[in-house]
Amino acid sequence: MNRRVVITGAGVVSSIGIGVDEFWRHCLQAKSTVAPIPANWERYAALHSRLWSPLPDIDPEYLGVARTERLQLDPGSVLAHGAAREAFERAGLNIVPDAASSRVFSLAGVDAARIGVYLGTGIGGAYSFLHNHTHHLYQRARATLKDYAETRASAQDRETLDGVLALMAHGPRYHPFVVSMLMPNASSAAVAIKFSITGPNVTYCVACASGTVAVGNAYRAVRDGSVDVAVSGGCEYLNDEHGHIFRGFDVAGTLLRDCADPDAANRPFDEKRSGFLFSQGGAAVLVLEELEHAQRRGATIMAELTGFAETFDAHSMMSLAPGGGQIERMLRAALADAGVGAHEVDYINAHGTGTKNNDETEAEIIDRVFGKSVRVNSTKSLLGHTIGASGAIEILVTALSLRDQTTHICRNLDAPLRDLNFVRAVEQSDLRVGLSQSFAFGGHNAAVVLRRFS
């Protein structure tokens, strides 16, 4: 017999807020942070998109990460730490300092071997790789140019060469922890080390579906009895000194290009959409728990997870398969897993990137499977795209919507591409069943079904 799985805690770091309360308040206020990309990025490439959604200035110690730890962690892992710590606190789990180390903790009253960590990331520690790779190249370039300048270059040439070196922004050293910083499983491992969690520890790396797949598999682990508690979600950090990561998406033609009005540029499901808003990053972590285990602790329950499914298009690395047949199969499997019909779904947190083809295909599938009455919005219309963190953030939004019986708007939606029930105003609704779906480069499709807990 399957066990019931509930969400008892959550934590989030995003461009519109740090912490669940601030984040959710800003969602309902339709707040969005959109700014010009760092000016120096345009020194390295002619970019088509010039906007992004930056994170606020964050003190790692505010996230519970000491300075010495930060020096050994990729920024994505730092974000995961902060979200995990808040999730434990909101779940009512007592965080106890280890007697031997001020930087290590345990969770009192729960069996560490019966807790699993399931986190997703799209690109892992790309920042750490690029940051150290530049230092690696700089050292060689500096030696070569120094030799040339001393033997053959004029004073003017030397000035030019110094300018070239100055373009290669880099850290003060090649970091001795670079391998453990850049490996994709670092965030999952770091969270478990920090909180002395010895159960299964798994990282899911499936591009934009990473967070959704991580939460879905964590749900299955709790449901099937592998663990009693699961720490699940996604994290991503997409910044680097030279704009390498941004340029990759820009060259691929996925980023928004209409940058004349920054406040109105990001517009999923609108006829005037031109691509997605690139986010600096983010993280969301959920504490999933077997229902009776949670009730014995007296935990407050946010929502219940009831279904999960994933499929693969086997079509293209960069685009959805025409018609969305595998997405439809995934959705119907997720509904069957949850034991609900499509007509029972009240709310969909859509993938909703703002790209031309993806939004068109997704809207068509929603219409075909769920009809025109289900409420639909896109959290990316507020945050932009956080890649591996996006699905986890959107599942959190779905849970909060079910808890509070309201949804945030689909921002900048002036001319909807299809006649669906897109959320245009924040208002109370009778929301019983919600679904969050993600699609990813490579062809990955995943969705999680949630139910209002009562």
Question: Which features characterize this protein?
Answer:
single chain, 454 residues, alpha/beta, Peroxisomal Thiolase, Chain A, domain 1, twelve-stranded mixed beta sheet, three-stranded mixed beta sheet, 14 helices, 17 strands, globular
**Average of pLDDT:** 93
The CATH class name of the largest domain reads Alpha Beta
Number of helices: 14
- In CATH, the topology of the largest domain is named Peroxisomal Thiolase, Chain A, domain 1
Q: Determine the structural class based on helices, strands and strand pairing.
A: alpha/beta
Spatial shape: globular
β-strand number: 17
Distance between the termini: 21 Å
Instruction: Say which CATH homologous superfamily of the largest domain is assigned.
Output: Thiolase/Chalcone synthase
Provide an overview of this structure:
By secondary structure, the protein is of the alpha/beta class. The protein has 2 domains: 5-125 and 183-451, Peroxisomal Thiolase, Chain A, domain 1 (3-Layer(aba) Sandwich); 127-179. Helix content is 35%, strand content 20%. Helix 3 packs across helix 7 and helix 8 (210-224) packs across helix 14 (390-404). The longest helix has 26 residues, at 126-151. The two termini are 21 Å apart.
Short description:
The chain is α/β, with parallel strands linked by helices.
Topology:
Blueprint: E1 5-14, E2 17-18, H1 20-28, E3 35-36, E4 51-53, H2 67-70, H3 75-90, E5 94-97, E6 105-108, E7 115-120, H4 126-151, H5 155-167, H6 178-182, H7 186-194, E8 201-204, H8 210-224, E9 229-237, H9 244-251, E10 278-279, E11 281-290, H10 291-297, E12 303-312, H11 325-338, E13 347-349, H12 356-370, E14 375-377, H13 380-383, H14 390-404, E15 421-422, E16 433-440, E17 444-451
Parallel strand pairs: 4-10, 7-8, 7-9, 13-14, 13-16, 14-15
Antiparallel strand pairs: 1-2, 1-11, 1-12, 3-4, 5-6, 9-11, 12-17, 16-17
